[in-house]
Specification:
single chain; alpha/beta; Rossmann fold; two-stranded parallel sheet
Length: 267
């Protein structure tokens, strides 16, 4: 049995940046929220900010580290009694370094969070909600999930996974006439804590580092444009910084005669 007749939007990585501003943007639309991140104090601050303007909303805080596999499964189990209209996998971080010199402890954590947690949560949500109308899964990738960026090879590889996984899932869901939509958002440079974490520094000046960048508020606005659309991809052009909506960008074999000739279980 569900807790009540309310519906919720889940946002992971909601303690700062795009996730934080996305929560506030959905609150403006009167959406109940389940916000997830490691830093409970930041989530409590977010909840307080939202309550000041929208005191009737239900805001659920879940403090957990999703780079730990058992926490990923526990989070989803903890939320089974809530009706989730949209799941947004935003949690993740980057790394700037050569492959030869990168900190493998950091890389291991990044792989767990950017790839493993996202794939598990996506799979669980799709399994439960694929036949429910007006549901969406939105995974946050990066412009680096469509272009290989020098000195960020491993990070880009994780985001290529996010992009291809989500685009492929969108195709799969359409082929079986599922009601749930899968979408991927690919930001370019955005002023968040990303720069500090990726460069292992306590200070990071976006004005000195980038000629152009978006704010977290702008990216939250782009995310809502994707949410409102029937397109599968929302991406920022790395050269013009224009936001565009499109159908999947990667080649998809579809019904090619070269595909595996084995029947696949229905979703």
């Amino acid at each position: 049995m569900k807790n009540n007749d309310k519906t919720y939007i889940v946002i992971t990585g909601a303690s700062s940046g795009i996730g934080y501003e996305t929560a506030k943007a959905f609150a403006k639309r009167g959406k109940n929220l389940i916000v997830v991140a490691r830093r409970k104090s930041n989530l409590e601050k977010l909840k307080e900010e939202i309550f000041k303007e929208y005191p009737t909303l239900d805001i659920i805080i879940k403090s957990t580290d999703l780079s730990i596999t058992q926490n990923v499964y526990k989070l989803y189990e903890d939320l089974r009694n809530y009706t989730i209209e949209t799941w947004i996998n935003n949690a993740g971080f980057g790394n700037y370094d050569s492959v030869a010199n990168q900190d493998l402890n950091k890389i291991e954590t990044m792989l767990h969070l950017n790839i493993e947690a996202l794939a598990i949560l996506s799979s669980l949500y799709v399994h439960d909600y694929k036949d429910i109308s007006d549901t969406q899964l939105i995974n946050i990738s990066s412009a680096g999930g469509y272009t290989i960026v020098p000195n960020a090879i491993t990070y880009c590889a994780t985001k290529f996974f996010v992009s291809t996984f989500t685009e492929g899932l969108a195709q799969e869901l359409k082929e079986c006439n599922a009601k749930l939509q899968a979408k991927v958002l690919a930001p370019a440079a955005t002023k968040t804590e990303f720069g500090k974490v990726a460069n292992n520094t306590s200070q990071y000046d976006y004005n000195k580092t980038f000629g152009t960048y978006h704010t977290s508020e702008q990216m939250a606005d782009f995310l809502l444009k994707l949410y409102d659309s029937n397109e599968s991809v929302g991406f920022v052009d790395r050269e013009t910084f224009e936001f565009k909506l499109s159908s999947p960008l990667f080649p998809y074999a579809g019904n090619s005669g070269h595909n595996q000739k084995i029947s696949i279980k229905e979703l």
